[in-house]
Amino acid sequence: MKSTFLTIGVCSICLLSACQNENMATKDIYEESGNTINVNNDRSELYQHGTNRNINEDFGYVRHQKSPIMGENVSDDHYTAIDREKLADTISKYCTDLPNVQDAATLVTDQQALIIYDTDTKDRNLTADQVKKTAMSIVPRFYHVYVSDQTELRNLMESYSYLDSDSRNAQEGIQSLIQKMKKSPQGNPVVQEENANGESKGDK
């Protein structure tokens, strides 16, 4: 009789253990949201200051997966997910860390980064190349970067900061400003197939 109870007890423990393992197997360490898998999905903690947790010490990890449905594009929102003001802030801060750059103003649009900086450099092309490469190390690769040390253009650039991509005549105004900025040194070509601004032959 004791052996029967012992057998039933062992079987019950094994059954409970198996159920628990099955539940653990289905509960991944990642939290999934659509096709994005985040290890730490507490978005409320992003960019918060004054908290006990030092977010500057954390690594950032996100994995994206293609949709299993043929032809479905699940990444349409990655262009709008860019915080352009934060990009502009970061570029300007890093540029003022460069030698001979005392002031930097940055405008980030949907496809361009424009930087106007004040400098006392003796090698304008070298400084232009450093400013441009600093910006290119921060913005997405499809961006084009334009630089100028003509500080009188700063007020014009600032006037466009109140607009957005849908504003009337915004693109025409930005293109006009870019042409003025390109009269300043732009640094060296990025790669053989692209000019100094990251433009290829097929770019408008």
Q: How would you summarize the topology of this molecule?
A:
Blueprint: H1 2-26, E1 31-33, E2 36-38, E3 62-64, H2 84-95, E4 101-108, E5 112-119, H3 124-136, E6 144-148, H4 154-159, H5 170-181
Parallel strand pairs: 5-6
Antiparallel strand pairs: 1-2, 2-3, 4-5
Features of the shown structure:
globular; 3-stranded mixed beta sheet; 3-stranded antiparallel beta sheet; 204 residues; alpha+beta
Short description:
The protein has helices at residues 2-26, 84-95, 124-136, 154-159, 170-181; strands at 31-33, 36-38, 62-64, 101-108, 112-119, 144-148. The chain is α+β, with helices and mostly antiparallel strands.
Would you kindly provide a written description of the structure presented here, covering whatever features stand out?
- By secondary structure, this protein is of the alpha+beta class.
- It folds into 2 domains: about 30-80, no CATH class; about 85-180, Alpha-Beta Plaits.
- Helices cover about 35% and strands about 15% of the residues.
- It contains 5 helices and 6 strands.
- Strands 1-2-3 form a 3-stranded antiparallel sheet, with no helix packed on it.
- A hairpin with a 2-residue loop joins strand 1 (about 30-35) and strand 2 (about 35-40).
- The radius of gyration is 26 Å and the shape is globular.
- Residues about 25-30 and about 35-50 have low confidence and may be disordered.
The global form is: globular
CATH class category label of the largest domain: Alpha Beta
**How much helicity do the residues have?**
25-40%
The residue ranges in which pLDDT falls below 50 over 5 or more consecutive positions are 24-30, 35-49
CA gyration radius, whole angstroms: 26 Å
| CATH topology type of the largest domain | Alpha-Beta Plaits
Strand order of the largest sheet: 1-2-3
Q: Indicate how many domains the architecture comprises.
A: 2
The largest pleated sheet is described as:
3 strands, antiparallel
Question: Helical element count?
Answer: 5
> Can you count the beta strands?
6
Beta content: 5-15%
- Overall CATH architecture of the largest domain: 2-Layer Sandwich
Give the N-terminus to C-terminus distance in angstroms: 88 Å
What structural class do the secondary elements suggest?
alpha+beta
Mean pLDDT: 78
Give the H and E element order.
HEEEHEEHEHH
